[in-house]
Design goal:
Radius of gyration: 36 Å
Largest sheet: 5 strands, antiparallel
Low-confidence stretches: 1-34, 81-86, 805-810, 854-858
Strand content: over 45%
CATH architecture of the domain at 720-854: Sandwich
Distance between the termini: 51 Å
CATH class of the domain at 720-854: Mainly Beta
CATH topology of the domain at 720-854: Chondroitinase Ac, Chain A, domain 3
């Protein structure tokens, strides 16, 4: 019987996560908690997680329900039928061989290999498998409960330590070294050098402990070991350092899993314990703990941790708690999570900038200026409280070749060099340089000239040679206070004031925006367009065009624009009083505290390598967001092979870790369209298609970062003119099997499309007996508009190639249709020389090809039920006619063609033994000499079991 799977599709709209940073500590705002965590497989005991980085597929092994697969779109349970008849579903270990498209599965009854492209299982080796490792060289190592360690190339040891009760974990260090953690016998090292046999060594390290439950190797080749007494760190000289609840931030001493995230500047270690997750940040040496009370973790006891290509972290639980995923593309740096290791006194920030050597500069409301440099936080010696007895809060940073210019509110402008020195000549205030005001809000640089927007006008400062000459421009400005400065593509300086915008062009002030608008931010994008932020929306100036963006209808989080920034990839970002937004070419994508921002009031935005965006927030410290450069995945929904209507509807969907499904957009192409369509949020499109023949529809999803799917989904289909019908080919099954469908004229209801899709064996969930006869070829043939049958017989021809499923018997072959909970026999005419089987059907549905003995007694039908399709044969249209008929038992068949004068033209079949069921023969319109028959009417005569049936066909060969 056919038993379709009920696939658990718990997919949520989630977000991609990080990959860079000095800071990966996350002190989440309550509003951000839900969107940062996701939970799946809530009824499963998940004990192992592995990720295929090539196919981008997650594999989950459970302790009671086999293997689950997550392809980024849905979860699917895989039932390994070859595992002792499907009874043994306990998974103890997983390993991925991406180069060979193989998932290795360890169980208490042995080792199995699963081949995803063909969905086939193979029994590989006996033994109670407890640990698996696929090395970078493609060698599979295993460990067993009986304390055996070996690989698939024939190397094998049996540990003689009497305390050993099993191998717990395996990991690789470099190309030639393997480490094995045991239960009871401590740690072992395996060295495999060229021109020498592999050597197994017991590392008898004092105070290490005999139970090693997890091993991970960092960039310095230190081994991080999980034990029952905390974390042990083993260096290259076997020196030992320990972390426990007594001397670190570990939440529990029983360690089940370790995962190391590697970044350009640092590493972050994640420890799965019986009480939650502990995190150690390598840049700041700070600890953080996650558990079910302070995060979205589904439970306490973590049994495995894994990451993916986006940096998402997955945590496995038993006790039917499934897996939790942390989307940590957002992180934050606040006084709370720094634990006092900083000069910072509050989290209200005005300014942030990325400077030389990856240094991040920030300034808060109390005048603290800090620099994240080389993994450390540095406080700068700034004149806090010495200028008019007011704090010198940094309002803007401007980098140059040898340092950073700082605009302050109360202390004028100062220059901090890359050595962090501040020399006396670089402090520019009213009392020492003629600055119009010590309150400076914006900076801009033009060659050797520094421009400073102050509370009392614009200051022009000549910086080289470093004897500053300050000139004040105030006359002609709409207002004295200058909030924003930016140069356009021609070098003109745009000046934003509290009452409007002007342009400084070679000594002249040109009014640009005559309205009394308070300008808050200015920027130039990569195309040369100028952007202007105001307290009432955002404006873009491109040539003579001026366009306004606002919260309605452009979906900005707020109309009060506080800052602007242009990322290295050209994307425009704006900060508002209620969140941030990025411009993806056609639309704005908002990001707020619900997405992960530490605070919605954004004061300034800057950018760092690797797609990192930093936000200075007013109340939430610094927030970091990593844009993903990976595009989303796109899928065709309800694919079809044939379309008969003129207006054809295409349905599609997308998935992206970083973008909720509702925020994905799409572009499509049909056939030879040179350009992609305009961006649309719709998940379907109806396109007019008049021409008969093969067509190609392509569609790609676009995420909220503007990344398009690099491998668009494609649907190749055949457009049939309903009055003519036609022939369509499709690949099905495996081993090169191919299905050919002939659709007679007017055989489907008007407006219907014929949909054809291959079906995998594990989706059918066949019985053991059915699996022995299944050939691996199954497909679904359905018509839209709920049509269950065709008006005329449809011809099916399967070219089954040279391969079947390993257990299949190639003799004899027959087609079956799944009906009412069981397989109904169809039959088919087998041509073993051409390796094909042919039949006709009128009832649509799920059809499969089996090898074995067909039923001995098939219900009798209407005589032979002889049909001929098409009834007109022409070299211009149809070059053969299919003669189909039904047999209620195996019978010898004779089929001949006569002209109307009664003369024999061709013998199609002479006493050819055929099986019961629906059979089909073909006539190509030629006589016994191979010549095309003259135009006219011809008679098909079918003889069997003492009965004769006839049909007429018309041949037109002019």
């Amino acid at each position: 019987m056919l038993r379709y799977k009920t696939l658990r599709d718990n997919m949520k709209s989630c977000e991609k996560i990080s990959g860079w940073a000095l800071l990966v500590l996350m002190s989440l705002a309550p509003s951000a908690q839900a969107s940062r965590w996701s939970h799946f497989l809530s009824q499963e005991n998940v004990v192992r997680i592995r990720y295929d980085s090539v196919a981008q597929i997650h594999w989950f092994g459970t302790s009671n329900n086999g293997v689950w697969k997550f392809d980024g779109r849905r979860f699917e349970r895989l039932v390994p039928m070859t595992m002792t008849g499907g009874r043994e579903l306990r998974i103890t270990a997983l390993a991925v061989d991406a180069g060979r498209d193989t998932l290795w599965v360890g169980t208490p009854t042995g080792l199995f290999a699963y081949h995803p492209p063909t969905r086939t299982w193979t029994y590989a080796q006996a033994g109670d498998i407890r640990a698996l490792l696929m090395t970078t060289a493609g060698v599979l190592w295993y460990g067993t409960k009986n304390c055996e360690i070996g690989n698939r190339r024939g190397i094998k040891w049996r540990l003689t330590n009497v305390n050993c009760v099993g191998i717990r974990c395996l990991t690789q260090e470099g190309p030639n070294t393997i480490y094995a953690g045991t239960d009871g016998a401590g740690l072992y090292r395996i060295d495999c050098r060229e021109q020498a046999p592999c050597a197994l060594t017991a590392l008898n390290i004092p105070n290490l402990g005999n139970v090693i439950s997890a091993i991970a190797v960092d960039r310095h080749k230190n081994k991080w070991l999980g034990t029952l007494n905390g974390v042990a760190v083993l260096d290259s000289a076997n020196g030992l350092q320990r972390f426990s609840t007594a001397n670190s931030g570990l939440i529990d001493n029983i360690i089940n899993a370790i995962w190391i995230e590697t970044y350009p500047q640092s590493e972050t270690k994640w420890f799965g314990t019986t009480s939650g997750v502990s995190v150690l940040d390598g840049a700041t040496a700070l600890w953080l703990a996650y558990h079910s009370q302070n995060s979205g973790l589904a439970g306490k006891a973590i049994f495995d941790i894994s990451g993916d290509h986006d940096g998402n972290l997955w945590f496995a639980f038993q006790n039917e708690l499934g897996v939790s995923r942390l989307d940590n593309n957002w992180s934050e740096l606040t006084t709370k999570n720094l634990g006092g290791k900083t000069c910072r006194r509050d989290d209200f920030f005005y300014a942030i900038e990325n400077g030389a050597a990856g240094r991040l500069w920030s300034g808060n409301d109390l005048g603290d200026i800090e620099v994240l440099a080389d993994g450390a936080l540095k406080c700068l010696p700034v004149d806090n409280g010495r200028c008019q007895n007011l704090p010198s809060a940094a309002r803007d940073f401007l980098p140059d070749q040898d340092g950073m210019w700082v605009a302050t509110a109360g202390c004028g402008v100062l220059k901090v060099f890359n050595t962090f020195a501040v020399v006396s000549g670089s402090r520019l205030r009213r009392d020492n340089s003629g600055m119009p005001s010590d309150y400076v809000y914006a900076l801009a640089m033009d060659k050797d000239t520094l421009w400073a927007g102050t509370a009392l006008g614009l200051a022009k400062i000549v910086t080289k040679p470093f004897i500053a000459v300050v000139t004040t421009l105030a006359d002609g400005l709409p207002a004295k206070r200058v909030n924003a400065l930016a140069h356009d593509a021609t070098g003109r300086l745009w000046i934003g004031t509290t009452r409007g915008l002007v342009i400084y062009d070679h000594g002249k002030l040109l009014p640009m925006v005559p309205e009394e608008i308070s300008i808050t931010a200015l920027a130039r994008d990569s195309s040369g367009a100028m952007w202007m932020g105001t307290e009432d929306g955002l404006y873009r100036f491109s040539g003579s065009e001026r366009r306004r963006f606002s919260s309605q209808p452009d979906r900005l989080p707020d109309d009060r624009i506080t800052c602007l920034g242009v990322a290295p990839d050209g994307m425009v970002w704006c900060g508002t009083a209620n969140g941030a937004a990025s411009f993806a070419g056609t639309q704005w994508i908002a990001r707020t505290a619900d997405d992960g921002l530490s605070n919605n009031f954004i004061r300034q935005i800057t950018f760092a390598p690797g797609g990192v965006v930093w936000f200075a927030t007013f109340g939430g410290g610094l927030a970091r967001y990593r844009q993903s450069s990976l595009g989303p995945n796109t899928f065709i929904v309800n694919p079809f092979a044939v379309a008969t209507e003129t207006n054809v509807m295409f349905q599609y969907s997308g998935f992206d870790f970083n973008t909720p499904a509702l925020n994905l957009t799409y572009q499509y192409k049909l056939d030879t369209m040179r350009m992609w369509s305009p961006v649309t949020a719709a998940t379907f499109v109806t396109l007019p298609i008049d021409a008969a023949g093969t067509h190609l529809f392509r569609v790609r999803a676009i995420d909220r970062d503007g990344n398009a799917d690099a491998s668009p989904a494609a649907l190749r289909f055949y457009r049939l003119q309903p009055e003519r019908g036609g022939l369509v080919d499709s690949t099905i099954g495996w081993g090169g099997s191919r299905l050919q469908v002939y659709l007679p004229p007017a055989s489907l209801p008007p407006g219907s499309s014929l949909r054809l899709a291959a079906i995998a064996a594990d989706s059918l969930q066949l019985s053991d007996e059915e699996m022995k006869q299944f050939t691996g070829v199954a497909f679904q043939l359905l018509a839209t508009k709920e049509a269950s049958s065709a008006n005329r017989p449809i011809t099916l021809k399967i070219f089954y190639g040279d391969h079947f499923a390993p257990s299949a018997d190639p003799r004899p072959l027959a087609l079956y249709r799944y009906e009412a909970g069981k397989w109904a026999f169809i039959g088919g005419t087998v041509d073993s020389e051409r390796r094909q089987i042919t039949t006709t059907i009128t009832q649509l549905g799920v059809i499969a090809l089996f090898a074995g003995t067909p039923p001995s007694n098939t219900d009798p039908r209407r005589g032979f039920a002889l049909t001929a399709q098409p009834r007109m044969l022409s070299p211009r249209f149809f070059d053969k006619v299919t003669i189909s008929f039904e047999l209620n038992q195996p019978t010898a068949i004779t089929a001949k063609i006569y002209n109307l004068a009664g003369r024999l033209v061709q013998t199609v079949s002479e006493n050819h033994a055929m099986n019961a069921g629906r059979n089909a023969l073909e006539w190509n319109g030629r006589d016994r000499d191979g010549r095309l028959c003259p135009s006219g009417m011809y008679l098909i005569c079918l003889q069997a079991q003492g009965r004769t049936e006839t049909k007429t066909v018309l041949v037109v060969n002019q």
